[in-house]
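Consider the tokenized backbone below.
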């Protein structure tokens, strides 16, 4: 069975763009965050995983095409690159309303204990659910 990709739409809001109608690159980060929240809410938690603290340890974004007022809603595809002991790699591809790739964001997420301010191991269920969305490293 092929691995899954989670896909969701994110609106390009009126206030996201500058006077030239281009979305500021910092908003790509917000679009990926919104998609990660939807991924956990719609796919991970319904599978029985209990909500826990997760933090972004590292993120890289490749900006491939500007997002404009006319680009939305954008579609964000969420896949898992790797699952480790306390962290996992996540890839998010942002596409405009016509399907053109506007950006690719790769991040490392860490399961986190707010009381001790340290990483904690992912549960077996978290690893299992995340692995369902695992992809092999490929050129984008």
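A designed sequence for it:
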């Amino acid at each position: 069975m092929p691995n899954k990709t989670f896909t969701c739409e994110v609106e390009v809001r009126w206030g996201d763009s500058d006077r030239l109608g281009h979305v500021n690159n910092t908003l790509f980060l917000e679009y990926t965050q919104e998609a990660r929240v939807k991924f956990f809410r719609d796919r991970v938690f319904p599978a029985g995983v209990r909500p826990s603290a997760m933090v972004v340890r590292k993120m890289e974004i490749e900006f491939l095409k500007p997002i404009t007022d006319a680009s939305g809603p954008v579609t964000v595809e969420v896949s898992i690159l790797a699952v480790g002991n306390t962290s996992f790699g996540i890839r998010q591809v942002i596409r405009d309303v016509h399907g053109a790739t506007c950006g690719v964001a790769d991040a490392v997420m860490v399961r986190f204990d707010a009381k001790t301010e340290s990483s904690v191991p992912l549960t077996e269920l978290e690893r299992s659910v995340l692995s369902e969305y695992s992809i092999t490293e490929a050129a984008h």
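The mean pLDDT is 92.
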